């Protein structure tokens, strides 16, 4: 085994990171499971395996527009489960906040729609909610905008929100398959990835495009640290030189730290000498 490679572990990555000031974080559902929010694809516990009762043609249909137009009920039942503010942020969310306080965070790109990054106190200009949020909703037909309160009340009555103007179905601004990602996503991808000096990929299976392609946009020497329970990505997918991320082939600048997100960031905080501050933040 390559000795350089072997020694580029979490600790070595932390040492490298201590000198960085443009850290980009790519996050997924795995950073919120310890808050009690299920992820999507974990067998048994993931949302997609709990959708059987809704008789969907395939689990992801819940996020497909065509299906939603004919049968919005499964989505709104799911929305109720995932509704923001019902949950508190995890240690991983607070670690990202610590990165900001340490002036190292360039941006966190999250696929999550639980808005726990905001709740954890990370500045909104540091957050890119790549798959949208519940904060606003729009009528599918006339595009009339609705706020969180409107949707909340109806979702919690197990009813379907309809537009007051045209009676169309009102859909939260969560990005469905086939929909464009928010303009802010593209703007920030453009400005941030060439500037990034360290990439943390955490709690995501890297199965969904275009998000999963972002890791190929950093400089070829930029270290990429994956903290996840399992290898991520697709072996048949072009991940640049990110082969290590799906456990196939190693390269020098990538680290796969296989653990829970919370354990991973707590070890990272320790290696960075931030243990006390991290614990203080968790207790506050
Ligand atoms: P997935 O459910 O696909 O992947 C979550 C990953 O996190 C898996 O690899 C898990 O093994 C891992 N994981 C779960 N809990 C963990 C923990 N406590 N510590 C460490 N790892 C853990 O979720 P995403 O990758 O976020 O789209 O899914 C991407 C998109 O697919 C979502 O944004 C969603 C879905 O369709 C929309 O909502 C629009």
TrEMBL record:
Entry binding sites for Zn(2+): 139, 142, 163, 166
UniProt entry keywords in alphabetical sequence: Metal-binding, NAD, Transferase, Zinc
Q: What reaction gets catalysed by this protein?
A: N(6)-hexadecanoyl-L-lysyl-[protein] + NAD(+) + H2O = 2''-O-hexadecanoyl-ADP-D-ribose + nicotinamide + L-lysyl-[protein]; N(6)-tetradecanoyl-L-lysyl-[protein] + NAD(+) + H2O = 2''-O-tetradecanoyl-ADP-D-ribose + nicotinamide + L-lysyl-[protein]; N(6)-acetyl-L-lysyl-[protein] + NAD(+) + H2O = 2''-O-acetyl-ADP-D-ribose + nicotinamide + L-lysyl-[protein]
Identify the cofactor(s): Zn(2+)
Tell me yes or no: is Transferase among this UniProt entry's keywords: yes
Among the GO molecular function terms of this UniProt record, one is: zinc ion binding
- The Deacetylase sirtuin-type domain sits at 3-275
Annotated Gene Ontology cellular component terms: nucleus
Q: Which family does it belong to?
A: Belongs to the sirtuin family. Class I subfamily.
Q: What is this protein called?
A: NAD-dependent protein deacetylase
């Amino acid at each position: 085994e390559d000795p350089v490679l072997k020694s580029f572990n979490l600790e070595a990555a932390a040492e490298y990171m201590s000198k960085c000031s443009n850290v980009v974080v790519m996050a997924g559902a795995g950073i919120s499971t310890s808050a009690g929010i299920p992820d999507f694809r974990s067998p048994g516990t993931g949302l997609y395996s709990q959708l059987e009762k809704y008789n969907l043609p395939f689990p992801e249909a819940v996020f497909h527009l065509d299906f939603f137009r004919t049968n919005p009920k499964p989505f709104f039942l799911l929305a109720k489960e995932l509704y923001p503010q019902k949950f508190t942020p995890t240690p991983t969310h607070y670690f990202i906040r610590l990165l900001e306080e340490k002036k190292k965070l360039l941006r966190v790109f999250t696929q999550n729609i639980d808005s726990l990054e905001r709740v954890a106190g990370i500045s909104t200009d540091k957050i890119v909610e790549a798959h949208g949020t519940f904060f606003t909703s729009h009528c599918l037909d006339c595009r009339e905008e609705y706020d969180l309160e409107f949707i909340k009340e109806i979702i919690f009555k197990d009813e379907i929100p309809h537009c007051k103007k045209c009676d169309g179905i009102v859909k939260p601004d969560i990005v469905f398959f086939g929909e464009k990602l928010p303009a802010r996503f593209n703007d920030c991808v453009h400005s941030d990835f060439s500037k990034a000096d360290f990439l943390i990929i955490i709690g995501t299976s890297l199965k969904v495009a275009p998000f999963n392609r972002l890791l190929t946009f950093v400089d070829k020497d930029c270290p990429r640290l994956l903290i996840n329970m399992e290898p991520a990505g697709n072996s048949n997918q072009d991940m640049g030189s990110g082969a290590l991320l799906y456990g196939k082939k190693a390269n020098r600048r990538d680290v796969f730290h296989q653990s829970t997100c919370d354990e991973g960031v707590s070890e990272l905080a320790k290696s960075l000498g931030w243990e006390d501050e991290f614990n203080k933040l968790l207790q506050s």
